[in-house]
Specification:
Among the domains are: about 35 residues; about 120 residues, no CATH class. The protein is built from 26 helices and 17 strands. The strands form five sheets. It has a five-stranded mixed beta sheet with strand order 4-9-8-5-6, covered by helices on one side. The protein has a four-stranded antiparallel beta sheet with strand order 10-11-7-12, with helices on one face. About 0% of the residues have low confidence.
Amino acid sequence: MPSRRLSKTQKQKKYKIRRANNRKARNIRRIKRLSENTNNNVLNLSDYTLSEAETSLLSKGLKFIPTPGTQNIRQNLICSFNELARKMRCKILFHTNEDDKQLHPLYINTNYNPGNTTCTALENYLYATKMELCKIHFHKFRDNLTKKERNALTSLRNETNIVIKKADKSTTVVVQNRTNYAAEGLRQLNDGIHYAAIHKDRTHEIHDLINKIVCEMQINSEIDSITHRFLSQSLTFRPGRLYLLPKIHKISISDIENFKGAEALQRGMSIPGRPIISQCASPTMPIGHFIDYFLVPLVQKQHTYVRDTKHFISKVESLHLKPETRLVTYDVTSMYTNMTATELLQSAAKALTKLKQTDVTIPIPDISYLIKLLQILLENNEFEFNGHLYKQILGASMGAVPSPEICDLRLFDILENIIKKYNHKNKILAHFRYRDDGFMAMDATESEILQFFELANQEHKYLKFTYNIHLNETVFLDTKVYKGQRFKQSGVLDFETFIKPTETFMYLHRSSAHPNATFRGFIKGEIIRHKRNTSDPHKTKQLISQFKERLISRGYSESEIDSIVSETQTINRQELLKNSKTKSNRPPSVLVTKYNPAVRKLGKILRKHWKLIQKDKQCSELFPMPPIIGYKRNRNLNELLNSNR
């Protein structure tokens, strides 16, 4: 009678088939679960029909990084270490006592390579560590995309008739017809007010114009050598690039539902977009950083200035208000694109007269030079869209580095003029502002507050104020400010984290090819934000519990989240509202490399021969800590899908 037992080979084959079927079933369930959330995560307003795999891919979010390939891992790692070695050798050769001071804010890397030094300890450490990296073992890892999702990535990259963008004020992924996207861009560009078409690329002319002023500043000793090198750096300049973020929050849910499945309506659907002009690699980018450096301290001196949410909460919690105090918030519509270059230059010139040398660490040039450079930046904002060149003729570019500060200074002057004309200015108990969003606590009647905004909407030709007046609660930045239990007891306003109705909670997917520290840092940062922004401990627990549930739906494990929650439980809210950041005089050296899951225990390799450095007196003083690892990210879905568009 033949044996019914399976041989060892047959058993292995059986288990292999079973494991493959289990993996297939898990993937099917995962894709199905993700496709159920498509209405929240992915909004398809194009003629293109997304497959389940394409929907699954886009549901991961545009910040998701597919697992990188294994080509040239060792070569890239050695190149990164060679750069670390170059910096350590330069520090040995050129170190002075002045190196402990703050680094020049406009310093750019010279890439000077001194070669081997006479410091035996350093050279021995570098050689030994490099040998360890040459024989490093690479670990196996699982691809974070299925084969179908990999194919979906290829098909979406090759589909030229659609545009994939993150929604404005939301993390929703929006898929649009390219024709509709281009039509919305052209609608804004051809309004005859803000933009004008040009027929010649003036990139080199603008660069030469800037260089002429920079050389004059150098001759007149208005700038130091490092600043001169920064402003006159030779790059491959090109015009800026305009792109649009779809404002789906401007479209009602009922309209979106009506458009779904109706191809004729989709083709004619116009989605409003927020215009962003990226000035990366444009000739005005260096002078933008230069001007911004001098404008930032001027903005910070404004009595209405708030740096961020933490700063705002600290200021408001120092107030003791009466029960009848009204809470007012306002927003300046399209602030960046509705101010003329003339008025922006006037406000900047007025503010720069108040700049003191103690406010900055580099010499302040003559104000006339700063105004000339600022005028070039404002009047030569040229960019490309849909294969054609345009120029912004009204307002400041939303993608230029100094635009927030320039517009902030002008808006401050406008508000000061309004308040001077306002008959009830003494009833403004507090006034704080972050860019174009403002918060006021006023001991005034509703009609008296309305008088303020009537004046505000008459002050400027283009700028208009929208506002909300509330007695008990309002929303500012990412907080809800309200009169709660604490207010009843001491007159101090209460706070709670505000979550926008358009938020879809597309957190960074746990399977993304990021280092583990990124996920831990994100979770800890969000928990700290809830603890800081919420004054009621009971509501804080509710928010953290909801946050935990949303994280689990994005692939995070419960144990991972709980360990970070317990770690942050002992943190006092008052400590979170303090500025506790301290800068080390001697920061550690950094190995900057791209993250790859095949490379593990890299830090252990960098520390293995560190005792060679510690035994040398000079090296131990210059390098008190082993090198740390700074990971550069690989290309995410946003870059992969839009690189050819």
